[in-house]
Amino acid sequence: MLQDRLSTGISGLDEVLYGGLVPACAYLVRGGPGSGKTTLGLHFLTAGAANGEKTLYITLGESAQQIGTNGDRLGFDMNGIAFLDLSPTSDFFTEIQTYDIFSPAEVEREPTTKKIIESVGSLKPKRVVLDAIAQFRYLSSDAFQFRKQVLSFIRFLLEQGATVIFISEGSDTAPDNDLQFMSDGVINLNHGLSDGRTLNVTKFRGSNFHTGMHSMRLTNKGMEVSPRLQPEVYKREFIVQSIPSGVPELDELLHGGIERGTITIFTGSTGVGKTTIGLQFMKEAAGRGERSVVYCFEEPEEILLHRCESINIPVNAMSDRGTLSVIPVEPLYFSPDEFANMVRQEVEEKKARIVMIDSVAGYRLSLRGEDLISHLHALCKYLQNMGVTVILVNELETITGDFRATDVGISYMADNIIFLRYIEVQGQLRKAIGVLKKRMSDFEKTMREIEITRYGIKVGKPLTNLRGILSGTPEFIGKQENE
User: Fold this and answer.
1) Beta strands in 42-161 (DSSP E)
2) Which own/partner contact pairs does 188-193 have at CB distance under 8 Å and 24+ positions apart?
3) Residue 184: is it exposed, middle or buried by C-beta count within 10 angstroms (0-12/13-18/19+)?
4) Distance, CA of 190 to CA of 30 (rounded, Å)
5) Phi, psi for 470 (deg, rounded to 5)
6) H/E element holding 118?
């Protein structure tokens, strides 16, 4: 339960840990240089200080002054953190000390231990960060003594009622497997060239936790963690009802519209009108007071807004009323987990009812080589479980020729597939629209011509007198009724 946990000060990490750290336990935070270990420790201590808890930062490496300066730069309130600085000073270099009888470890260990005991005994902190525990190795004569000393030290802190984070820079040349065995939980901070910064938990006694790699970012305000989306965790009750487009002929083609909580793919060549039709559904939803959000991975926001206004879709007015949000996304900047958390905020905090991703190809760039289908599947399933209508814009490279629903193998996850097609009729390039798939209801099996004009979307009568439409070069079999 949340009331039994201590917040780490990082909301995303708290979510990974099912609410935070279990009190009166010891946790190992491990990672290479610059991975964010000290930053995580500062989040943990400042969160405790904000709750009126006494906190202590024990440093054996970087000086307390350096840590405090870096914390101030990141906007942490350092006033509530007490420091015990056991890092080497410049005096150690200028006043060279030699030990003729005893080893350096034996001479240094006693005063170091005494200072820790005195500081903890007088302050009685509820949260302690030790940076870095590997320094204890140099105060121990052998591995057995190190293990015994660390276990004794952790027990001493826990008996004082403290929750402890101890930091390690474990590596292949200096492994910290013994520390992992001694801890109640292990949090790994990773930094890869291809997948960016990630965080994962490999041990967490007394509680469940979200497994897998979670995106992590170090910013000028500290650490941000974006948990990997687990759609089965989320569920919202909703009524399945038809969502019309407001264009009578299009709704007739769809037998009323698309259903709430379904996934719809608008697929077709570039410039055929996929995004425009998706926004037409949002325009109609805005009239009912529902909020929609468009994530633009490719087209600049200004161009999209201008284009919609020119065809009678009042996106600026919708935005002013709070019924539409157009969010440009730089795919090479955000990871899939970070993007999923952006979507969650719109759905859970701002109550978005329709979400459009424009386009699947742009979203794919954010994956950095990861599997498109698994990430898109998880995101769409989450939105379905929350009763949100999903619109995916899928662009095909071909203009005419053999028909394909998508190029990326996502057709299986769609409840509805609406395709738009260029066709050549009597030397003119026209557009046609049809329905390939609709799970929740029947649909019209014919295709209709579609035009996008300054007055809006115009859909014609069924093209019953044409054959070969899907090839892109149809032939007349009689005179069209609407000619």
Assistant:
1) 55-59, 81-85, 127-131
2) 188/30, 188/31, 189/29, 189/30, 189/31, 189/32, 189/35, 189/36, 189/37, 189/40, 189/216, 190/31, 190/35, 191/31, 191/32, 191/34, 191/35
3) buried
4) 9
5) -65, -20
6) helix 104-123
pTM of the model as a whole: 0.84
| Paired sense of beta strands 196-204 and 185-192, if any | antiparallel
Cα–Cα distance measured from residue 338 to residue 198, given in angstroms and rounded to the nearest whole number: 11
Chain-centroid distance of CA 306 in Å reads 30
Identify whether the C-beta of residue 133 lies closer than 8 Å to the C-beta of residue 168. yes
**What are the two backbone dihedrals, phi and then psi, of residue 427, each rounded to the nearest 5 degrees?**
80, 0
Element (H, E) at 189: strand 185-192
Dihedrals φ, ψ of 71, to 5°?
-65, -40
Query: What is the identity of the amino acid at 303?
Result: I
- As a residue count, the chain comes to 483
Tokens 């930091």 label which residue? 167
What is the identity of the amino acid at 40?
L
First to last CA, the chain: 68
| 54 within 8 A of 19, measured Cβ to Cβ | no
Per-residue tens of pLDDT for the chain, all 483 residues: 445 899 999 999 999 999 999 999 999 999 988 999 999 999 999 999 999 999 999 998 889 999 999 999 999 999 999 999 988 765 544 455 554 443 444 444 567 778 888 999 999 999 999 997 776 666 666 677 778 888 888 899 999 999 999 999 876 666 788 889 999 999 999 987 666 899 999 999 989 999 999 999 999 999 999 999 999 989 999 998 999 999 999 999 999 999 999 999 999 888 999 999 999 999 999 999 999 999 999 889 999 999 999 999 999 999 999 999 999 998 888 889 999 999 999 999 999 999 999 989 889 887 776 788 899 999 999 999 999 999 999 988 766 556 666 767 788 899 999 999 888 777 788 899 999 999 999 999 988 999 999 999 999 988 888 777 666 666 777 654 444
